[in-house]
C-alpha cells in the first residue's frame, strides 16, 4: 500500500470532517429555529380554539350592539382604565414583626452607643452649653434615630436631662417640618441603606434660625448684650459617631470639605465654615463596641450575636463634629487666642494630629482622644481603606523607625540604670572618670588601662 496516498486521504478526510461538522451545526440551529416557530404557532392556535369553545358554551358572554362590545369583561376594562388615569396608592409602611417601631427597621442596624463614647464628648457639650448660655440640664440634645432609648439614660447619668430621642420616623418629621427644636444633634445612625447620606443632607441644612426663632428657651434672648450671637446662617452643632470609611465616600465630599485645613496655604476665610469639621478619635487603636438590645435576634441581628458575643465592633468609628465658628470663639479659654477658631480644641486636646494631650488638660477624657482638624491628621489605623494618604511606610522607613525605637529604648534603659559617683579631683584639677566612662569636666578622660 502506498504510504503517500494514505497520508493524502488522511488530510482530505480531516478537512472533510471539519466541513461536515460545520454543516451539522448550521442544520441544528436551523431545526431549532423552525421548532420554536412551530411551537409559537401551536400555542396561538390552541388559545384561539379555547376562546371559540368558550363562546360556543356560553353564547350570551359576548354580544355586539351598535358597534360596541358589551360583555362580562367590561368591568375589568373599566378598572384597567381607572388604574391608568389615577396611580395606585403607595403601600403602607411595614413595621417589624414585634411592633417596636412605627417604621421599617433592620435588626442588624440596632446597636446602642457605648457609655464611653458619650464620656469622650462631655467637654465639647459643656463648651457648647456655655456658648449657648445654658447648663447641662437645660441644653437640648436631639438624637433622631431611636433604637432602645439608651441615650437618655446614659446622658442623664452625666447630667444632661433634656434629651430628645422619641420612637418616631425621622424622615416623616423632616417631610412634615416637625423636627423638634434643639441646641445640638448627637447620633450614631444606622450603617445600612441611605441613612448616613440622608443624615448628612439634613445636618448641612439644619440652620440655627429654623429651631430658635419661635423657641421660648432661645439662648440668644438670655445672653448678655455684649456677647455675640450665632449668625442666622450658622448650622446647629452636631456630633456624629460614624465609621472610619465615611469621609472617603463621594456623598460625604459633596457636603463637607474634609481636608481643607490640611492643604498648604489654607486660610479660614477661603472655605465655607459650615463645611468644616473636626474629629475626635480614640487613642491606642481603641474601638467603640456597640451592644445590640435584648430584643434583637441572633439570626437577624449582628453576626457577632450568632457567634455568641454580646457586643460588636464591625468598623473603627470616631466622632465627626461641627461647631459654628462664632460659637467656637465664645468657647475660648484665653481671650488672646481668639484669632483662631480651633484654639479651644488645641488648648484642650493638643495640636491637630498630635499623639500627646495638651499640658492644660487634666481630664482623663482628653488624654484618651486624638484631635484632628482634617482627615490627613487622622491616625493611620483609623483612616479609610480608600484614603490616598493611608499608605504604609516603605521598607527603609520602617527599618529606620524600628532602629530609632530600639535606640530610644536602650537609652532610656541606660539612663535608668546609671549610677553616678561624686567627682574626685586630682592634683591637676581634673575630675576622675565616672563609672560610665565619661569625664565630669572639660578635661580629657584618662585612657583605660588594661
UniProtKB/TrEMBL annotation:
<feature type="compositionally biased region" description="Basic residues">
    <location>
        <begin position="14"/>
        <end position="32"/>
    </location>
</feature>
<feature type="compositionally biased region" description="Basic and acidic residues">
    <location>
        <begin position="48"/>
        <end position="59"/>
    </location>
</feature>
<feature type="region of interest" description="Disordered">
    <location>
        <begin position="344"/>
        <end position="366"/>
    </location>
</feature>
<feature type="region of interest" description="Disordered">
    <location>
        <begin position="1"/>
        <end position="105"/>
    </location>
</feature>
<feature type="region of interest" description="Disordered">
    <location>
        <begin position="384"/>
        <end position="450"/>
    </location>
</feature>
<dbReference type="GO" id="GO:0003676">
    <property type="term" value="F:nucleic acid binding"/>
</dbReference>
<dbReference type="InterPro" id="IPR002052">
    <property type="entry name" value="DNA_methylase_N6_adenine_CS"/>
</dbReference>
<feature type="region of interest" description="Disordered">
    <location>
        <begin position="210"/>
        <end position="229"/>
    </location>
</feature>
<protein>
    <submittedName>
        <fullName>Uncharacterized protein</fullName>
    </submittedName>
</protein>
<feature type="compositionally biased region" description="Low complexity">
    <location>
        <begin position="408"/>
        <end position="419"/>
    </location>
</feature>
<feature type="compositionally biased region" description="Basic residues">
    <location>
        <begin position="393"/>
        <end position="406"/>
    </location>
</feature>
<feature type="compositionally biased region" description="Low complexity">
    <location>
        <begin position="354"/>
        <end position="366"/>
    </location>
</feature>
<dbReference type="GO" id="GO:0008168">
    <property type="term" value="F:methyltransferase activity"/>
</dbReference>
<dbReference type="GO" id="GO:0032259">
    <property type="term" value="P:methylation"/>
</dbReference>
<feature type="compositionally biased region" description="Basic and acidic residues">
    <location>
        <begin position="1"/>
        <end position="13"/>
    </location>
</feature>
<feature type="compositionally biased region" description="Basic and acidic residues">
    <location>
        <begin position="95"/>
        <end position="105"/>
    </location>
</feature>
